[in-house]
Amino acid sequence: MLRTENLFKTFTAQERGRVAAVNDVSFHVPAGRFFTLLGPSGCGKTTTLRCVAGLEHPDSGRITIDGVDVYDREAGLVVPAHRRAIGMVFQSYAIWPHMTAWENVEFPLTVGPRKLRLPAAQRSRLVAEALEMMHMADLRKRSATQLSGGQQQRLALARAIVGKPRLLLLDEPLSNLDAKLREQMRFEIKRLQTEIEITAIYVTHDQGEALGLSDEIAIMCDGVIVQRGTPDDIYNRPQSGFVADFVGSANLLPGTATEAADEDAPVTVALGGDVSVVGSASGKLVAGEAVVLVVRAEAVRTSPLPSGSAADGSLIGTVRSRVFLGESVDLLVETLGQELRIRVPAGATQYQPGSRFALNITPGRCLVLRDDRAEAPVDEAAERALA
Amino acid sequence: MTVTTTRPAPAAGPPSRPPRTLTSVGRRLRSRSLSLFLLLVVGLLVLPPVVILVMSAFADGRTLRYSEFTWENFADVLTDEHAWMSIKDTVIFGVGAALTVVTVATILAWLVERTNTPGRRAVYALLIISFAVPTFIQGMGWLLFLGPGTGLFNSVVQGLTGSDFEFPIYTMGSMIFVQAMTMLPVIFLLIVPAMRSADPGLEEAAAMSGASRVQTILKITLPLIRPAVLAALFLSAILTIESFEVPALIGSPARITVLSTEIFAEIRSGVADYGAASAFSIIMMIITIAGLINYQRATARSHRYATVRGKAYRPSRVDLGRWKYVAAVFAVGVPLLKVSPVLMIVWASFLERYKPPSLSAFGDLTTATYAAVARDPEVVRSLINSVVLGAGAAVAVMVLAGLAAWQLVRRRNNVTKSLDFIMALPLVMPGLVLGLAVLRTSLTIPIGLYGTEYIILIALVIHYLPYGMRYGHAGVISLHPELEEAASVAGANPTSVVRRILVPLLWPTLIAGGAFVFLATIRQLSLVVFLSGPGYEVATPVLFLRWQYGSITDAAAFALIIVAVACLVLASFSKLTAGMAIANPGANRATPKSK
Lengths: 387, 595
Prior knowledge:
The structure holds two protein chains of two kinds. Chain A is α+β, with helices and mostly antiparallel strands. Chain A has helices at residues 45-53, 101-110, 120-133, 149-161, 179-195, 207-213, 231-236, 241-246, 376-386, and strands at residues 2-13, 17-29, 34-38, 60-65, 68-72, 77-78, 86-89, 167-171, 199-204, 216-221, 224-229, 251-257, 266-272, 275-281, 290-295, 300-303, 315-324, 328-335, 338-345, 356-361, 367-370. Chain A folds into two domains: 2-236, Rossmann fold (3-Layer(aba) Sandwich); 241-386, CATH 2.40.50.140. In chain B, 70% of the residues lie in helices and 0% in strands. Chains A and B meet through β5, β6, β7, α2 and α3 of A and α20 and α21 of B.
């Protein structure tokens, strides 16, 4: 349905000279799929989306929508945005304040080549349908400026789908909404997308949105797609520290592989201080290689300190702070000279700041990655994203 | 996909047009074709007079074609001690009037837009009314109001205190005051949009950070509107330096000459000395270029302060509490003070021989002066010309400036930057000099413009391009680019985006700018004084001559007729366009039928 090949786009930044915003991005989205570009701000996801929309043009590469080239640098082909037949929802909603809700939705049907425009009756049926679908039917006469944020958002969606486009682009559509509305709109978007079976490209920096909505996610960092996969893949099998960190904010513990291992095979990792943990290798590993252990907050169990000496290889942590989250409690625990975030059930009262526990990392529930953190840009971006 | 495509898609069926293939140079040219076209039009308008002016400054003879290059004009001017005095006084005048008017206008704008000051609605009406009155008639009014002898203010103060008080009208201080008062509406209207578009949330955030109201104003409100205030400051300084009316009315009797009166004297005293006048103009241009550079910087900076988004927002007002009555005195008092000289003119216009207002003089009131002036064919012809040329200039300026501002804000490239520069170029040319330069251009390049109304129209358009640009710029900056992008993605071609989205959203700005240009052309004197002639005259130069050689009361009646015509045209114009603003997007406003 949508295919991009080797997209490059550079901008001239004031201080840093030319910056590659999109650096060799290629992907293919089959029809009817919900595809998400996920990444920290400045990673090039929005630029990629705007290139697909035709609002910006890549420096090179090729974009094909539904089998038709809309951009091809080699052939010198550029189809302008208004002839790409795309629906798009903008971050600012871009609801035209000089039109009513109805007129906003009707707009896409009243532009474009004259001979292809629909008769008035059919047009109002489509507008009514789109408004109905977004539960906006009774607000049709409302001036756009009288709508709340959530209503504007729904109106923007209705406007994007009224012409039954082949492709729906969404540029951080939920980032201006409050949390509850965001939750609600997330379901609305998913329902809409499956109901009209449209191919959707979604841009966000919110991993929760990405995991919840997508059929497939592409994680971007510094203009490059660093990993692609289903939400399950991305969450459970991150291929780099950056992805592990960005999606689900995992703990990353440096260590050394004590043995060689094949992909998905269990491997023992020495973390220092006689402590070692068994994880599953994300790829081929050789013995003695520097690795990173990806430990999700919920993969750590606590137990009372063992009596006797602590030198039996278990991890000892001191609680530094606790955050109550309702169903659970997040603890920041200091261990091996770094901080580890773990999640424990709410109601447990024994975890007070300063208390010490043994930490048991559930074997097999954590991933062992080759240590790629020497590659500075990835790491910096990760830190930026977490800051 | 099973969805039926109801919109034309390049995929569905044969494409309506074969996909165009473009080289990168061709694509670039196409995306810049509008800016290039605008650059061509504006360049052809603006550059010839500038070039001719510079050539005149370095020419020895009296006709350009036979002159040789010389520095003599500058040598003559710069070795003259009197000329140096004029330059100094020009700077004092410009800085003084700019600081005064911007201070007053900023306070007024804040009171009107962001506080609950009572009577704030009256400010607009009072300021606009007085703005319609040509500057030199306002100056006449101030002389009647504050001047020695028959001045109303002096006689009232003397009557109340019993002293022999005399307002020092013939001083630099008075020149600055009167000049500042004449500029107040323009500068006020320039600052108001910035005041209006500043996000009140930013002020509320400051309040929540523990800032007091005064601290919030000083640290948040003022810095936020600083680009607009700076721009207003430089613009008012430039306006003052190029002004001619107040220096002629008050400066000349006070023996204070500034560059503009110096230039006027060079041309109107005996044999016209174009060389010296042009040399003075170049000096004036150098002073104003310094202001212009800062002005450009200030407006470029205002990019960062765009706070109006596609999202709805509500401005909140500061509750001044008891202080609001003090504020009301200021907010209504200043515009009232500004209107009072106009009332003096009204008074004078109903008399056949001028005498100051008093109870006994009421018996002499008559409309005979109006009747006599309105029967004069020259008056009628000049009024019609003024209205037609003013409206033509307003439309031309706002079309050019609106498009140029849009191109500049949305695509900053070398073409649009050059366009911006050329559009701002006329700012450095005083009206008097531009009028002269256009006249000389029409004589030097003989394409049949000399001695026609078109030459006046061209001069007016050139002169008001920068002002139109300010309006357009402010308007476009307040529009989120996604509003236009959403239309593109929805299938609207560039022409439709302009027609359906940009123009309706920009409409209030275009109307405000057009109204400003129209009113400004009607009151314009120095620009057209050399271009107007028998058969193609405009109102103000005719009025100027009649004031010089006729009676105060005749001039007053004529002036008020001009004001009345201007207001009438403006009112019907805005009524007409207000209707269009609603009708335009409503072209497809057919009442939606439910299914």
